[in-house]
Protein backbone atom coordinates (compact mmCIF):
# COMPACT_ATOMS: atom_id res chain seq x y z
CA UNK A 1 0.00 0.00 0.00
CA UNK A 2 1.50 3.21 -1.08
CA UNK A 3 0.02 6.16 0.73
CA UNK A 4 1.83 8.62 -1.48
CA UNK A 5 0.09 7.16 -4.49
CA UNK A 6 -3.28 7.37 -2.80
CA UNK A 7 -2.83 11.06 -2.32
CA UNK A 8 -1.48 11.45 -5.81
CA UNK A 9 -4.56 9.71 -7.13
CA UNK A 10 -6.90 11.71 -5.00
CA UNK A 11 -5.23 14.85 -6.21
CA UNK A 12 -5.61 13.69 -9.77
CA UNK A 13 -9.24 12.90 -9.22
CA UNK A 14 -10.10 16.00 -7.35
CA UNK A 15 -8.00 18.99 -8.20
CA UNK A 16 -9.08 20.81 -5.08
CA UNK A 17 -8.20 17.93 -2.83
CA UNK A 18 -5.04 19.32 -1.34
CA UNK A 19 -6.56 22.74 -1.20
CA UNK A 20 -9.13 21.33 1.15
CA UNK A 21 -6.61 19.49 3.28
CA UNK A 22 -6.32 22.40 5.61
CA UNK A 23 -5.42 20.71 8.86
CA UNK A 24 -3.24 17.97 7.48
CA UNK A 25 0.38 18.66 6.87
CA UNK A 26 1.24 16.53 3.91
CA UNK A 27 4.93 16.27 4.58
CA UNK A 28 4.47 15.65 8.30
CA UNK A 29 1.96 12.91 7.66
CA UNK A 30 4.23 11.04 5.30
CA UNK A 31 7.43 11.38 7.25
CA UNK A 32 5.88 10.03 10.43
CA UNK A 33 4.84 6.82 8.77
CA UNK A 34 7.00 3.85 8.07
CA UNK A 35 5.98 1.49 5.34
CA UNK A 36 4.66 -0.93 7.91
CA UNK A 37 2.44 1.52 9.70
CA UNK A 38 1.10 2.68 6.38
CA UNK A 39 0.01 -0.85 5.53
CA UNK A 40 -1.83 -1.20 8.82
CA UNK A 41 -3.19 2.29 9.10
CA UNK A 42 -3.96 3.09 5.48
CA UNK A 43 -7.76 2.67 5.62
CA UNK A 44 -8.16 5.03 8.54
CA UNK A 45 -5.70 7.46 7.04
CA UNK A 46 -7.53 7.32 3.74
CA UNK A 47 -10.76 7.87 5.59
CA UNK A 48 -9.46 10.82 7.53
CA UNK A 49 -7.98 12.25 4.35
CA UNK A 50 -11.36 11.98 2.66
CA UNK A 51 -12.99 13.52 5.71
CA UNK A 52 -10.52 16.35 5.88
CA UNK A 53 -10.94 17.02 2.21
CA UNK A 54 -14.62 17.54 2.76
CA UNK A 55 -14.18 19.40 6.02
CA UNK A 56 -14.71 17.04 8.96
CA UNK A 57 -17.91 15.59 7.51
CA UNK A 58 -19.86 18.80 7.99
CA UNK A 59 -19.13 19.74 4.39
CA UNK A 60 -20.14 16.36 3.04
CA UNK A 61 -23.14 16.93 0.81
CA UNK A 62 -26.34 15.67 2.48
CA UNK A 63 -26.96 13.11 -0.23
CA UNK A 64 -23.49 11.66 0.37
CA UNK A 65 -24.06 11.49 4.13
CA UNK A 66 -27.29 9.60 3.47
CA UNK A 67 -25.60 7.12 1.17
CA UNK A 68 -22.69 6.55 3.54
CA UNK A 69 -24.96 6.01 6.55
CA UNK A 70 -27.02 3.59 4.50
CA UNK A 71 -23.81 1.76 3.57
CA UNK A 72 -22.68 1.86 7.20
CA UNK A 73 -25.91 0.19 8.28
CA UNK A 74 -25.23 -2.69 5.91
CA UNK A 75 -21.60 -2.94 6.95
CA UNK A 76 -22.57 -3.01 10.64
CA UNK A 77 -25.05 -5.77 9.81
CA UNK A 78 -22.38 -7.80 8.04
CA UNK A 79 -19.57 -7.17 10.48
CA UNK A 80 -21.53 -8.08 13.60
CA UNK A 81 -22.82 -11.19 11.83
CA UNK A 82 -19.35 -12.45 10.92
CA UNK A 83 -17.85 -11.33 14.19
CA UNK A 84 -20.36 -13.51 16.03
CA UNK A 85 -20.19 -16.36 13.54
CA UNK A 86 -16.46 -16.71 13.25
CA UNK A 87 -16.19 -17.13 17.01
CA UNK A 88 -18.41 -20.20 16.84
CA UNK A 89 -17.23 -23.73 16.21
CA UNK A 90 -19.91 -24.62 13.67
CA UNK A 91 -17.91 -23.35 10.67
CA UNK A 92 -16.13 -26.26 8.99
CA UNK A 93 -12.38 -25.75 9.19
CA UNK A 94 -11.91 -25.54 5.41
CA UNK A 95 -14.19 -22.50 5.29
CA UNK A 96 -12.77 -20.70 8.31
CA UNK A 97 -10.14 -18.72 6.35
CA UNK A 98 -12.80 -17.34 4.01
CA UNK A 99 -15.14 -16.18 6.76
CA UNK A 100 -12.32 -14.78 8.82
CA UNK A 101 -11.11 -12.72 5.84
CA UNK A 102 -14.60 -11.47 5.08
CA UNK A 103 -15.06 -10.49 8.74
CA UNK A 104 -11.86 -8.48 8.55
CA UNK A 105 -12.92 -6.72 5.35
CA UNK A 106 -16.30 -5.78 6.82
CA UNK A 107 -14.59 -4.43 9.91
CA UNK A 108 -12.39 -2.23 7.74
CA UNK A 109 -15.44 -1.01 5.83
CA UNK A 110 -17.23 -0.12 9.06
CA UNK A 111 -14.24 1.79 10.37
CA UNK A 112 -13.65 3.57 7.09
CA UNK A 113 -17.26 4.75 6.81
CA UNK A 114 -17.41 5.77 10.47
CA UNK A 115 -14.28 7.83 10.08
CA UNK A 116 -15.47 9.57 6.94
CA UNK A 117 -18.85 10.32 8.49
CA UNK A 118 -17.41 11.50 11.80
CA UNK A 119 -20.14 12.93 14.01
CA UNK A 120 -22.70 12.32 11.28
CA UNK A 121 -22.23 8.57 11.43
CA UNK A 122 -25.09 6.57 12.90
CA UNK A 123 -24.40 4.29 15.89
CA UNK A 124 -24.54 0.54 15.42
CA UNK A 125 -28.11 -0.76 15.61
CA UNK A 126 -29.10 -3.91 17.48
CA UNK A 127 -29.56 -6.86 15.15
CA UNK A 128 -31.74 -9.95 15.18
CA UNK A 129 -30.01 -12.56 13.03
CA UNK A 130 -32.99 -14.89 13.21
CA UNK A 131 -34.82 -12.24 11.13
CA UNK A 132 -37.84 -12.40 13.41
CA UNK A 133 -37.65 -16.17 13.60
CA UNK A 134 -37.20 -16.84 9.88
CA UNK A 135 -33.70 -18.20 10.50
CA UNK A 136 -33.91 -19.62 14.03
CA UNK A 137 -30.55 -21.40 13.90
CA UNK A 138 -28.30 -18.84 12.22
CA UNK A 139 -25.49 -19.32 14.71
CA UNK A 140 -25.91 -23.05 15.38
CA UNK A 141 -26.41 -24.45 11.87
CA UNK A 142 -23.68 -23.73 9.34
CA UNK A 143 -26.06 -24.14 6.40
CA UNK A 144 -28.25 -21.36 7.75
CA UNK A 145 -25.26 -19.20 8.57
CA UNK A 146 -23.91 -19.59 5.03
CA UNK A 147 -27.32 -18.88 3.51
CA UNK A 148 -27.69 -15.66 5.52
CA UNK A 149 -24.15 -14.74 4.55
CA UNK A 150 -24.99 -15.16 0.87
CA UNK A 151 -28.10 -13.03 1.28
CA UNK A 152 -26.09 -10.25 2.95
CA UNK A 153 -23.29 -10.29 0.38
CA UNK A 154 -25.47 -10.36 -2.71
CA UNK A 155 -27.68 -7.65 -1.19
CA UNK A 156 -24.60 -5.60 -0.37
CA UNK A 157 -23.38 -5.74 -3.96
CA UNK A 158 -26.76 -4.63 -5.25
CA UNK A 159 -27.09 -1.91 -2.63
CA UNK A 160 -23.74 -0.22 -3.35
CA UNK A 161 -24.47 -0.46 -7.07
CA UNK A 162 -27.76 1.32 -6.61
CA UNK A 163 -26.10 4.19 -4.76
CA UNK A 164 -23.19 4.84 -7.13
CA UNK A 165 -25.03 7.55 -9.11
CA UNK A 166 -25.74 9.33 -5.81
CA UNK A 167 -22.02 9.73 -5.19
CA UNK A 168 -21.18 11.41 -8.47
CA UNK A 169 -20.80 14.77 -6.72
CA UNK A 170 -18.08 13.29 -4.47
CA UNK A 171 -15.75 11.48 -6.83
CA UNK A 172 -13.08 10.31 -4.36
CA UNK A 173 -15.84 8.76 -2.27
CA UNK A 174 -17.45 7.26 -5.36
CA UNK A 175 -14.20 5.55 -6.24
CA UNK A 176 -13.79 4.13 -2.75
CA UNK A 177 -17.40 2.93 -2.83
CA UNK A 178 -16.76 1.16 -6.13
CA UNK A 179 -13.78 -0.57 -4.56
CA UNK A 180 -15.90 -1.74 -1.63
CA UNK A 181 -18.60 -2.83 -4.09
CA UNK A 182 -16.16 -5.08 -5.98
CA UNK A 183 -14.83 -6.46 -2.71
CA UNK A 184 -18.34 -7.46 -1.65
CA UNK A 185 -18.74 -9.18 -5.03
CA UNK A 186 -15.68 -11.37 -4.39
CA UNK A 187 -17.23 -12.33 -1.04
CA UNK A 188 -20.62 -13.04 -2.60
CA UNK A 189 -19.20 -15.32 -5.27
CA UNK A 190 -17.12 -17.26 -2.74
CA UNK A 191 -20.05 -17.84 -0.40
CA UNK A 192 -22.32 -18.86 -3.26
CA UNK A 193 -19.69 -21.31 -4.48
CA UNK A 194 -19.22 -22.99 -1.11
CA UNK A 195 -23.00 -23.38 -0.96
CA UNK A 196 -22.96 -25.24 -4.28
CA UNK A 197 -24.25 -22.26 -6.26
CA UNK A 198 -22.64 -20.59 -9.23
CA UNK A 199 -20.68 -17.49 -8.30
CA UNK A 200 -23.06 -15.37 -10.39
CA UNK A 201 -26.79 -14.83 -10.25
CA UNK A 202 -28.81 -16.75 -12.81
CA UNK A 203 -32.19 -15.21 -13.76
CA UNK A 204 -33.95 -14.23 -10.52
CA UNK A 205 -33.29 -17.66 -9.06
CA UNK A 206 -33.45 -17.78 -5.25
CA UNK A 207 -30.00 -19.39 -5.45
CA UNK A 208 -30.77 -21.83 -2.68
CA UNK A 209 -32.17 -19.24 -0.28
CA UNK A 210 -35.51 -19.75 1.48
CA UNK A 211 -38.62 -17.77 0.46
CA UNK A 212 -37.99 -15.30 3.30
CA UNK A 213 -35.08 -13.96 1.25
CA UNK A 214 -36.98 -13.64 -2.03
CA UNK A 215 -36.27 -9.92 -2.36
CA UNK A 216 -32.53 -10.49 -2.61
CA UNK A 217 -32.76 -11.55 -6.26
CA UNK A 218 -35.81 -9.61 -7.38
CA UNK A 219 -35.20 -8.11 -10.81
CA UNK A 220 -31.99 -10.04 -11.49
CA UNK A 221 -33.66 -11.61 -14.54
CA UNK A 222 -33.44 -8.33 -16.48
CA UNK A 223 -32.16 -8.83 -20.04
CA UNK A 224 -32.17 -5.21 -21.26
CA UNK A 225 -29.36 -2.71 -20.69
CA UNK A 226 -29.69 0.91 -21.77
CA UNK A 227 -32.74 -0.09 -23.76
CA UNK A 228 -30.92 -2.85 -25.62
CA UNK A 229 -32.55 -6.26 -25.40
CA UNK A 230 -29.49 -8.49 -25.21
CA UNK A 231 -31.48 -11.69 -25.12
CA UNK A 232 -32.78 -10.81 -28.58
CA UNK A 233 -29.41 -9.76 -29.96
CA UNK A 234 -27.68 -12.85 -28.60
CA UNK A 235 -30.37 -15.35 -29.50
CA UNK A 236 -28.62 -18.57 -30.45
CA UNK A 237 -25.29 -17.25 -29.16
CA UNK A 238 -25.75 -16.89 -25.40
CA UNK A 239 -28.62 -18.53 -23.47
CA UNK A 240 -30.87 -16.18 -21.52
CA UNK A 241 -29.40 -17.47 -18.26
CA UNK A 242 -25.97 -16.26 -19.33
CA UNK A 243 -27.34 -12.88 -20.41
CA UNK A 244 -28.80 -12.32 -16.93
CA UNK A 245 -25.67 -13.58 -15.18
CA UNK A 246 -23.56 -11.07 -17.07
CA UNK A 247 -25.11 -8.08 -15.29
CA UNK A 248 -25.75 -7.65 -11.57
CA UNK A 249 -28.76 -5.42 -11.08
CA UNK A 250 -28.97 -2.57 -8.55
CA UNK A 251 -31.46 -2.35 -5.70
CA UNK A 252 -32.96 0.90 -4.45
CA UNK A 253 -32.52 1.93 -0.84
CA UNK A 254 -36.15 1.04 -0.15
CA UNK A 255 -35.76 -2.41 -1.67
CA UNK A 256 -32.65 -3.02 0.42
CA UNK A 257 -34.31 -1.81 3.61
CA UNK A 258 -37.22 -4.19 2.98
CA UNK A 259 -34.71 -7.05 2.88
CA UNK A 260 -32.78 -5.80 5.88
CA UNK A 261 -35.65 -4.74 8.14
CA UNK A 262 -36.35 -8.21 9.64
CA UNK A 263 -32.72 -8.28 10.79
CA UNK A 264 -33.11 -5.08 12.80
CA UNK A 265 -34.00 -5.89 16.39
CA UNK B 1 -22.64 -13.71 -35.47
CA UNK B 2 -19.34 -13.41 -33.68
CA UNK B 3 -16.44 -12.97 -36.00
CA UNK B 4 -13.21 -14.75 -35.51
CA UNK B 5 -10.55 -12.71 -37.22
CA UNK B 6 -8.04 -13.72 -34.68
CA UNK B 7 -4.92 -15.75 -34.51
CA UNK B 8 -5.71 -18.99 -32.74
CA UNK B 9 -2.15 -20.19 -32.80
CA UNK B 10 -0.96 -21.17 -29.41
CA UNK B 11 2.71 -21.07 -30.16
CA UNK B 12 3.78 -19.06 -33.12
CA UNK B 13 7.37 -17.88 -33.19
CA UNK B 14 6.84 -16.13 -36.49
CA UNK B 15 4.06 -14.06 -35.00
CA UNK B 16 6.31 -13.14 -32.13
CA UNK B 17 9.07 -12.14 -34.49
CA UNK B 18 6.75 -10.02 -36.56
CA UNK B 19 5.42 -8.43 -33.47
CA UNK B 20 8.86 -7.66 -32.17
CA UNK B 21 9.93 -6.01 -35.38
CA UNK B 22 6.70 -4.08 -35.42
CA UNK B 23 7.39 -2.79 -31.95
CA UNK B 24 10.89 -1.85 -32.94
CA UNK B 25 9.50 0.02 -35.88
CA UNK B 26 7.01 1.89 -33.76
CA UNK B 27 9.70 2.93 -31.39
CA UNK B 28 10.96 2.55 -27.89
CA UNK B 29 8.31 4.79 -26.41
CA UNK B 30 5.60 2.49 -27.62
CA UNK B 31 7.43 -0.55 -26.35
CA UNK B 32 7.82 0.77 -22.86
CA UNK B 33 4.61 2.73 -22.65
CA UNK B 34 2.56 0.36 -24.72
CA UNK B 35 0.26 3.10 -25.87
CA UNK B 36 0.84 6.16 -27.88
CA UNK B 37 -0.26 9.31 -26.22
CA UNK B 38 1.09 11.71 -28.81
CA UNK B 39 1.34 9.79 -32.02
CA UNK B 40 1.64 11.67 -35.24
CA UNK B 41 0.54 8.76 -37.38
CA UNK B 42 -2.60 9.63 -39.26
CA UNK B 43 -5.60 7.86 -37.83
CA UNK B 44 -6.78 4.92 -39.82
CA UNK B 45 -10.28 5.30 -41.09
CA UNK B 46 -12.08 2.11 -40.21
CA UNK B 47 -15.65 1.15 -40.78
CA UNK B 48 -17.22 1.07 -37.34
CA UNK B 49 -18.62 -2.42 -36.99
CA UNK B 50 -16.73 -3.93 -39.83
CA UNK B 51 -14.65 -6.98 -39.30
CA UNK B 52 -11.33 -6.48 -40.91
CA UNK B 53 -7.88 -7.85 -40.74
CA UNK B 54 -6.13 -5.21 -38.75
CA UNK B 55 -2.49 -4.68 -39.38
CA UNK B 56 0.16 -3.72 -36.93
CA UNK B 57 0.51 -0.16 -38.12
CA UNK B 58 -3.14 0.73 -37.63
CA UNK B 59 -3.84 3.23 -34.92
CA UNK B 60 -7.20 3.31 -33.23
CA UNK B 61 -7.82 6.61 -31.50
CA UNK B 62 -10.27 6.50 -28.63
CA UNK B 63 -12.65 9.42 -28.27
CA UNK B 64 -12.87 11.55 -25.12
CA UNK B 65 -15.53 11.77 -22.42
CA UNK B 66 -17.93 8.98 -21.58
CA UNK B 67 -17.59 7.57 -25.09
CA UNK B 68 -13.87 7.20 -24.55
CA UNK B 69 -14.33 5.32 -21.29
CA UNK B 70 -17.01 3.08 -22.77
CA UNK B 71 -14.76 2.27 -25.74
CA UNK B 72 -11.95 1.57 -23.29
CA UNK B 73 -14.22 -0.92 -21.54
CA UNK B 74 -15.21 -2.32 -24.95
CA UNK B 75 -11.53 -3.07 -25.64
CA UNK B 76 -11.22 -5.08 -22.44
CA UNK B 77 -14.46 -6.94 -23.11
CA UNK B 78 -13.33 -7.80 -26.65
CA UNK B 79 -10.15 -9.30 -25.24
CA UNK B 80 -11.96 -11.31 -22.58
CA UNK B 81 -14.70 -12.56 -24.89
CA UNK B 82 -12.27 -13.71 -27.55
CA UNK B 83 -10.03 -15.30 -24.95
CA UNK B 84 -12.81 -17.53 -23.62
CA UNK B 85 -13.95 -18.42 -27.13
CA UNK B 86 -10.43 -19.67 -27.75
CA UNK B 87 -10.28 -21.51 -24.42
CA UNK B 88 -13.40 -23.43 -25.40
CA UNK B 89 -12.15 -24.00 -28.95
CA UNK B 90 -8.84 -25.38 -27.62
CA UNK B 91 -9.72 -27.07 -24.33
CA UNK B 92 -6.70 -28.15 -22.35
CA UNK B 93 -6.26 -31.79 -21.59
CA UNK B 94 -8.11 -32.96 -18.52
CA UNK B 95 -10.51 -30.02 -18.35
CA UNK B 96 -13.04 -31.15 -15.76
CA UNK B 97 -16.78 -30.83 -16.24
CA UNK B 98 -16.80 -28.12 -13.57
CA UNK B 99 -14.04 -26.21 -15.34
CA UNK B 100 -15.79 -26.59 -18.71
CA UNK B 101 -18.95 -25.18 -17.18
CA UNK B 102 -16.99 -22.34 -15.65
CA UNK B 103 -15.39 -21.37 -18.94
CA UNK B 104 -18.72 -21.60 -20.76
CA UNK B 105 -20.25 -19.26 -18.19
CA UNK B 106 -17.33 -16.85 -18.44
CA UNK B 107 -17.54 -16.94 -22.22
CA UNK B 108 -21.28 -16.25 -22.08
CA UNK B 109 -20.81 -13.26 -19.78
CA UNK B 110 -17.98 -11.70 -21.75
CA UNK B 111 -19.65 -12.25 -25.11
CA UNK B 112 -22.72 -10.55 -23.64
CA UNK B 113 -20.64 -7.60 -22.43
CA UNK B 114 -18.99 -7.29 -25.83
CA UNK B 115 -22.34 -7.40 -27.60
CA UNK B 116 -23.67 -4.76 -25.24
CA UNK B 117 -20.89 -2.28 -26.01
CA UNK B 118 -20.92 -3.03 -29.70
CA UNK B 119 -24.63 -2.33 -29.88
CA UNK B 120 -24.70 0.58 -27.44
CA UNK B 121 -21.81 2.39 -29.09
CA UNK B 122 -22.79 1.64 -32.69
CA UNK B 123 -21.02 4.09 -35.00
CA UNK B 124 -19.20 5.66 -32.04
CA UNK B 125 -17.60 2.33 -31.22
CA UNK B 126 -14.17 1.14 -32.17
CA UNK B 127 -14.04 -1.70 -34.70
CA UNK B 128 -13.51 -5.29 -33.74
CA UNK B 129 -9.88 -5.55 -32.78
CA UNK B 130 -7.34 -7.95 -34.21
CA UNK B 131 -6.27 -9.85 -31.14
CA UNK B 132 -3.13 -11.80 -30.54
CA UNK B 133 -3.05 -14.45 -27.83
CA UNK B 134 0.14 -16.10 -29.02
CA UNK B 135 1.68 -15.55 -25.58
CA UNK B 136 -0.86 -17.86 -23.96
CA UNK B 137 -0.48 -21.62 -24.14
CA UNK B 138 -4.09 -22.74 -24.31
CA UNK B 139 -3.25 -26.41 -23.82
CA UNK B 140 -1.94 -25.80 -20.32
CA UNK B 141 -4.46 -25.55 -17.49
CA UNK B 142 -2.31 -23.30 -15.36
CA UNK B 143 -1.66 -20.91 -18.26
CA UNK B 144 -5.35 -20.63 -19.03
CA UNK B 145 -6.38 -20.09 -15.42
CA UNK B 146 -3.60 -17.55 -14.89
CA UNK B 147 -4.62 -15.61 -17.99
CA UNK B 148 -8.30 -15.77 -17.04
CA UNK B 149 -7.48 -14.52 -13.56
CA UNK B 150 -5.34 -11.70 -14.89
CA UNK B 151 -7.97 -10.53 -17.38
CA UNK B 152 -10.68 -10.56 -14.72
CA UNK B 153 -8.51 -8.71 -12.21
CA UNK B 154 -7.44 -6.06 -14.70
CA UNK B 155 -11.04 -5.68 -15.84
CA UNK B 156 -12.32 -5.19 -12.31
CA UNK B 157 -9.56 -2.74 -11.43
CA UNK B 158 -10.16 -0.87 -14.69
CA UNK B 159 -13.86 -0.41 -14.02
CA UNK B 160 -13.08 0.63 -10.43
CA UNK B 161 -10.71 3.30 -11.69
CA UNK B 162 -12.72 4.31 -14.75
CA UNK B 163 -16.10 4.86 -13.10
CA UNK B 164 -15.28 8.31 -11.76
CA UNK B 165 -14.74 9.65 -15.29
CA UNK B 166 -18.27 8.81 -16.40
CA UNK B 167 -20.58 11.81 -16.38
CA UNK B 168 -23.85 10.13 -17.36
CA UNK B 169 -25.36 8.30 -14.36
CA UNK B 170 -26.83 5.69 -16.67
CA UNK B 171 -23.36 4.84 -17.97
CA UNK B 172 -22.05 4.59 -14.42
CA UNK B 173 -24.89 2.27 -13.49
CA UNK B 174 -24.25 -0.08 -16.40
CA UNK B 175 -20.53 -0.11 -15.67
CA UNK B 176 -21.41 -0.96 -12.08
CA UNK B 177 -23.59 -3.84 -13.24
CA UNK B 178 -20.65 -5.29 -15.14
CA UNK B 179 -17.81 -4.70 -12.67
CA UNK B 180 -19.31 -6.79 -9.90
CA UNK B 181 -19.66 -9.71 -12.31
CA UNK B 182 -15.99 -9.30 -13.22
CA UNK B 183 -15.16 -9.33 -9.52
CA UNK B 184 -17.22 -12.51 -9.11
CA UNK B 185 -15.08 -14.03 -11.86
CA UNK B 186 -11.92 -13.06 -10.01
CA UNK B 187 -13.20 -14.75 -6.87
CA UNK B 188 -14.18 -18.02 -8.54
CA UNK B 189 -11.12 -18.31 -10.78
CA UNK B 190 -8.89 -17.77 -7.75
CA UNK B 191 -10.90 -20.34 -5.83
CA UNK B 192 -10.32 -22.85 -8.64
CA UNK B 193 -6.60 -22.15 -8.40
CA UNK B 194 -6.22 -21.97 -4.62
CA UNK B 195 -9.06 -23.79 -2.93
CA UNK B 196 -10.27 -23.06 0.59
CA UNK B 197 -7.77 -20.34 1.23
CA UNK B 198 -8.15 -16.58 1.20
CA UNK B 199 -7.11 -16.13 -2.44
CA UNK B 200 -10.70 -15.42 -3.58
CA UNK B 201 -10.33 -11.95 -2.08
CA UNK B 202 -6.61 -12.07 -1.43
CA UNK B 203 -4.51 -9.20 -0.23
CA UNK B 204 -2.86 -8.60 -3.60
CA UNK B 205 -6.21 -7.65 -5.16
CA UNK B 206 -8.15 -6.46 -2.12
CA UNK B 207 -5.81 -4.21 -0.21
CA UNK B 208 -7.07 -3.07 3.16
CA UNK B 209 -10.63 -3.99 2.32
CA UNK B 210 -10.68 -2.23 -1.04
CA UNK B 211 -10.45 -3.99 -4.39
CA UNK B 212 -7.63 -2.34 -6.31
CA UNK B 213 -8.35 0.22 -9.00
CA UNK B 214 -6.31 1.15 -12.05
CA UNK B 215 -6.23 4.14 -14.33
CA UNK B 216 -6.60 3.71 -18.10
CA UNK B 217 -2.94 4.69 -18.44
CA UNK B 218 -2.01 1.66 -16.31
CA UNK B 219 -4.43 -0.76 -17.95
CA UNK B 220 -3.97 -0.01 -21.63
CA UNK B 221 -0.29 -0.96 -21.81
CA UNK B 222 -1.25 -4.35 -20.41
CA UNK B 223 -4.12 -4.72 -22.87
CA UNK B 224 -1.97 -3.56 -25.78
CA UNK B 225 0.05 -6.77 -25.58
CA UNK B 226 -2.94 -8.65 -26.95
CA UNK B 227 -3.92 -6.15 -29.63
CA UNK B 228 -2.31 -5.85 -33.07
CA UNK B 229 -3.56 -2.33 -33.67
CA UNK B 230 -2.13 0.48 -31.61
CA UNK B 231 -4.55 2.06 -29.18
CA UNK B 232 -4.17 5.81 -28.93
CA UNK B 233 -5.64 6.92 -25.61
CA UNK B 234 -4.67 10.57 -25.71
CA UNK B 235 -8.28 11.77 -25.61
CA UNK B 236 -9.37 9.72 -22.60
CA UNK B 237 -10.27 11.79 -19.54
CA UNK B 238 -7.57 12.02 -16.89
CA UNK B 239 -9.34 14.34 -14.50
CA UNK B 240 -12.89 14.11 -13.31
CA UNK B 241 -15.51 16.47 -14.65
Automatic annotation (TrEMBL), chain A:
Pfam family, one: Ferritin_2
Protein's UniProt name: Ferritin-like domain-containing protein
Phylogenetic classification of the source organism: Bacteria, Pseudomonadati, Bacteroidota, Cytophagia, Cytophagales
From TrEMBL, chain B:
Record SUPFAM superfamilies: Ferritin-like
InterPro entries: Ferritin-like_SF, TAT_signal, TAT_signal_bac_arc
Pfam families linked to this entry: Ferritin_2 (PF13668)
Organism: Spirosoma arboris
NCBIfam families in UniProt: TAT_signal_seq (TIGR01409)
The name this protein goes by in its record: Twin-arginine translocation signal domain-containing protein
